[in-house]
Each structure stands twice: as C-alpha cells, then as structure tokens.
Amino acid sequence: MLNISKYLEKFAKKLNSENDNQERIIEIIKTKTGLSIQTGDIEIKGNIIKTKTTPAVKNKLFIYKEELLEEINLSSPIKIIDIT
C-alpha cells in the first residue's frame, strides 16, 4: 500500500518549484524594469506569464518584453513564450 506522505510529497515538490519559478521571474522583472510585482500578480499558465496588474505596469512589461523573455528563458527551467 502507498504511504500517504510519499504521495503528498510529490505535490509539495511541484508547488515549491512553481513558487521558486515565480520568485525568479519577479526578481528578473525587478532587475530589468525596476517594477516591484507581488507573487499574486503573476500566474504561469503553460508557457505564458499572465499578469494581474495595472495598465501602466503592463505597458512597461510590454516595452521590456523581449529582454524579459530572453532572461527568463536563460535562467529558468521552464520556457516562456509570452507575457500578457
């Protein structure tokens, strides 16, 4: 019989890696643009980063989009194709 702790450990590892990826992306955004974005303001769905911020912040992200995508793809295990 499967041990429940082993089963739950799989989910814990996945959640931790998602949080690590979000924190890495937030740090890259802050370094490149100077914007401070909270963890709840971005969501990674598939290969796309979806932002829940003001239009002004989204505009600045759009201006730096190519640089951000390049840096994110170089420094993280996931490959991001777009920021919306």
Q: How does this structure look, described?
A:
This protein has helices spanning 4-33, 55-63, 65-75; strands at 42-45, 48-51, 82-83. It has 84 residues and is mostly helical. Strands 1-2-3 form a 3-stranded mixed β-sheet. β1 (42-45) and β2 form a beta hairpin. α1 (4-33) packs antiparallel against α3 (65-75). The longest helix is centred in the first third of the chain and has 30 residues, at 4-33.
Write down how many β-strands occur, each being a DSSP E stretch of 2 or more residues. 3
Q: Which radius of gyration do the C-alpha atoms yield?
A: 15 Å
Give the end-to-end Cα distance, rounded to a whole number of Å.
44 Å
Strand order of the largest sheet: 1-2-3
Roughly what percent helix? 55-70%
Low-confidence stretches: none
3D shape = elongated
Query: Helix and strand succession?
Result: HEEHHE
Strand content: 5-15%
Query: Structural class of the secondary structure composition?
Result: mainly alpha
Q: Indicate the multimeric state.
A: single chain
Largest sheet: 3 strands, mixed
Number of helices: 3
* Mean of residue pLDDT values: 84
